[in-house]
Design a protein that fits this description.
The protein has a single domain, classed as Cytidine Deaminase, domain 2 (3-Layer(aba) Sandwich). Helices cover about 30% and strands about 20% of the residues.
Length: about 170
Protein backbone atom coordinates (compact mmCIF):
# COMPACT_ATOMS: atom_id res chain seq x y z
CA UNK A 1 0.00 0.00 0.00
CA UNK A 2 1.10 3.54 -0.74
CA UNK A 3 -0.43 6.73 0.62
CA UNK A 4 -0.73 9.58 -1.85
CA UNK A 5 -1.49 13.13 -0.78
CA UNK A 6 -3.22 15.64 -3.01
CA UNK A 7 -2.53 19.35 -3.00
CA UNK A 8 -5.10 21.90 -4.04
CA UNK A 9 -4.24 25.51 -4.68
CA UNK A 10 -6.59 28.44 -4.37
CA UNK A 11 -6.41 32.12 -3.65
CA UNK A 12 -8.45 33.74 -0.88
CA UNK A 13 -9.55 37.37 -1.22
CA UNK A 14 -11.15 39.30 1.64
CA UNK A 15 -13.23 41.70 -0.45
CA UNK A 16 -14.49 41.88 -4.04
CA UNK A 17 -12.45 45.07 -4.49
CA UNK A 18 -9.28 43.06 -3.87
CA UNK A 19 -9.94 40.95 -6.99
CA UNK A 20 -8.51 41.80 -10.40
CA UNK A 21 -10.94 44.11 -12.25
CA UNK A 22 -12.01 41.39 -14.73
CA UNK A 23 -12.94 39.06 -11.84
CA UNK A 24 -14.87 41.85 -10.10
CA UNK A 25 -16.85 42.44 -13.29
CA UNK A 26 -17.60 38.74 -13.79
CA UNK A 27 -18.72 38.41 -10.16
CA UNK A 28 -21.12 41.36 -10.69
CA UNK A 29 -22.67 39.54 -13.66
CA UNK A 30 -23.04 36.36 -11.56
CA UNK A 31 -24.70 38.38 -8.79
CA UNK A 32 -27.12 39.95 -11.29
CA UNK A 33 -28.01 36.50 -12.62
CA UNK A 34 -29.36 35.49 -9.20
CA UNK A 35 -32.45 37.65 -9.78
CA UNK A 36 -33.69 35.33 -12.55
CA UNK A 37 -33.07 32.08 -10.69
CA UNK A 38 -36.06 29.77 -10.31
CA UNK A 39 -35.72 28.26 -6.83
CA UNK A 40 -39.23 27.90 -5.35
CA UNK A 41 -38.35 24.70 -3.46
CA UNK A 42 -34.99 25.43 -1.84
CA UNK A 43 -35.11 29.23 -1.87
CA UNK A 44 -31.37 29.03 -2.59
CA UNK A 45 -30.75 31.17 -5.67
CA UNK A 46 -27.48 30.73 -7.52
CA UNK A 47 -26.04 32.96 -10.23
CA UNK A 48 -23.16 32.22 -12.55
CA UNK A 49 -21.32 34.14 -15.23
CA UNK A 50 -18.99 32.70 -17.85
CA UNK A 51 -16.30 34.80 -19.54
CA UNK A 52 -15.46 33.55 -23.03
CA UNK A 53 -12.18 34.06 -24.85
CA UNK A 54 -13.94 36.44 -27.25
CA UNK A 55 -14.97 38.72 -24.36
CA UNK A 56 -18.63 37.62 -24.27
CA UNK A 57 -20.12 37.13 -20.81
CA UNK A 58 -22.89 34.56 -20.48
CA UNK A 59 -25.11 34.51 -17.39
CA UNK A 60 -26.89 31.51 -15.92
CA UNK A 61 -28.89 30.71 -12.81
CA UNK A 62 -30.26 27.64 -11.15
CA UNK A 63 -33.57 26.31 -12.44
CA UNK A 64 -35.30 24.00 -9.98
CA UNK A 65 -38.02 21.49 -10.70
CA UNK A 66 -40.35 19.55 -8.42
CA UNK A 67 -38.64 16.42 -9.73
CA UNK A 68 -35.27 17.51 -8.32
CA UNK A 69 -33.02 15.67 -10.80
CA UNK A 70 -34.72 17.62 -13.58
CA UNK A 71 -33.39 20.96 -12.35
CA UNK A 72 -30.10 22.46 -13.50
CA UNK A 73 -27.36 24.36 -11.71
CA UNK A 74 -26.44 27.93 -12.63
CA UNK A 75 -22.96 26.98 -13.80
CA UNK A 76 -24.22 24.35 -16.24
CA UNK A 77 -26.96 26.65 -17.54
CA UNK A 78 -24.30 29.25 -18.41
CA UNK A 79 -21.72 26.78 -19.73
CA UNK A 80 -24.20 24.88 -21.90
CA UNK A 81 -25.66 28.09 -23.29
CA UNK A 82 -22.15 29.35 -24.08
CA UNK A 83 -21.30 26.07 -25.82
CA UNK A 84 -24.52 26.15 -27.85
CA UNK A 85 -24.05 29.75 -29.00
CA UNK A 86 -20.24 29.90 -29.23
CA UNK A 87 -19.16 26.29 -29.84
CA UNK A 88 -15.63 27.14 -30.92
CA UNK A 89 -14.83 29.71 -28.23
CA UNK A 90 -13.02 28.66 -25.06
CA UNK A 91 -14.05 29.59 -21.54
CA UNK A 92 -11.62 31.81 -19.63
CA UNK A 93 -13.43 32.10 -16.30
CA UNK A 94 -16.57 31.21 -14.36
CA UNK A 95 -17.93 33.16 -11.38
CA UNK A 96 -20.57 31.74 -9.05
CA UNK A 97 -22.44 33.20 -6.09
CA UNK A 98 -25.74 32.69 -4.28
CA UNK A 99 -28.30 34.21 -1.95
CA UNK A 100 -31.34 33.14 0.01
CA UNK A 101 -33.96 34.85 2.13
CA UNK A 102 -33.50 32.17 4.81
CA UNK A 103 -29.95 33.06 5.93
CA UNK A 104 -26.88 35.03 4.88
CA UNK A 105 -24.61 33.07 2.51
CA UNK A 106 -21.25 33.97 4.01
CA UNK A 107 -19.14 31.09 2.68
CA UNK A 108 -17.97 30.87 -0.92
CA UNK A 109 -20.39 28.92 -3.11
CA UNK A 110 -18.57 26.01 -4.70
CA UNK A 111 -19.79 24.15 -7.80
CA UNK A 112 -21.35 20.72 -7.33
CA UNK A 113 -19.66 17.60 -8.69
CA UNK A 114 -21.66 17.59 -11.92
CA UNK A 115 -20.74 21.23 -12.62
CA UNK A 116 -17.10 20.49 -11.84
CA UNK A 117 -17.11 17.63 -14.34
CA UNK A 118 -18.69 19.85 -17.02
CA UNK A 119 -16.01 22.48 -16.35
CA UNK A 120 -13.33 19.78 -16.58
CA UNK A 121 -14.68 18.58 -19.92
CA UNK A 122 -14.73 22.19 -21.15
CA UNK A 123 -11.09 22.62 -20.17
CA UNK A 124 -10.12 19.38 -21.90
CA UNK A 125 -12.12 20.29 -25.02
CA UNK A 126 -10.29 23.60 -25.48
CA UNK A 127 -6.98 22.70 -23.87
CA UNK A 128 -7.02 25.67 -21.51
CA UNK A 129 -7.57 26.14 -17.79
CA UNK A 130 -10.64 27.90 -16.43
CA UNK A 131 -10.37 30.43 -13.61
CA UNK A 132 -13.21 29.80 -11.11
CA UNK A 133 -14.32 32.64 -8.79
CA UNK A 134 -16.55 31.62 -5.87
CA UNK A 135 -18.31 33.86 -3.39
CA UNK A 136 -21.31 33.96 -1.09
CA UNK A 137 -23.29 37.13 -0.44
CA UNK A 138 -20.58 38.24 1.97
CA UNK A 139 -17.30 36.89 3.23
CA UNK A 140 -14.18 35.67 1.56
CA UNK A 141 -13.81 34.89 -2.13
CA UNK A 142 -12.04 31.77 -3.39
CA UNK A 143 -10.36 31.70 -6.78
CA UNK A 144 -8.86 28.63 -8.43
CA UNK A 145 -6.93 28.33 -11.65
CA UNK A 146 -7.91 25.06 -13.28
CA UNK A 147 -10.69 22.67 -12.39
CA UNK A 148 -8.11 20.15 -11.19
CA UNK A 149 -8.03 22.29 -8.04
CA UNK A 150 -11.76 21.59 -7.56
CA UNK A 151 -11.90 18.04 -8.92
CA UNK A 152 -8.45 16.50 -8.49
CA UNK A 153 -9.31 12.95 -9.55
CA UNK A 154 -11.58 13.93 -12.40
CA UNK A 155 -12.85 11.56 -15.05
CA UNK A 156 -10.93 12.06 -18.30
CA UNK A 157 -12.32 11.32 -21.73
CA UNK A 158 -9.13 9.50 -22.72
CA UNK A 159 -10.12 6.79 -20.21
CA UNK A 160 -13.49 6.44 -21.93
CA UNK A 161 -11.84 6.11 -25.34
CA UNK A 162 -9.46 3.47 -23.96
CA UNK A 163 -12.39 1.53 -22.46
CA UNK A 164 -14.40 1.67 -25.69
CA UNK A 165 -11.37 0.58 -27.73
CA UNK A 166 -10.62 -2.33 -25.37
CA UNK A 167 -14.23 -3.55 -25.47
CA UNK A 168 -14.23 -3.40 -29.26
CA UNK A 169 -11.33 -5.84 -29.24
CA UNK A 170 -13.21 -8.44 -27.18
Amino acid sequence: MKQVNLSLHYLVYDLPGDLPVADQELLKFATEAISNAYAPYSGYKVGAAVLLENGQIIQGNNQENAAYPSGTCAERVALFYAASQYPDVSVKAVAVTASTDKFRVSDPVTPCGSCRQVMAETEIRFGSSIRVIMRGETGKIYVVKGVNNLLPLMFHTDKLKKYIHETDLD
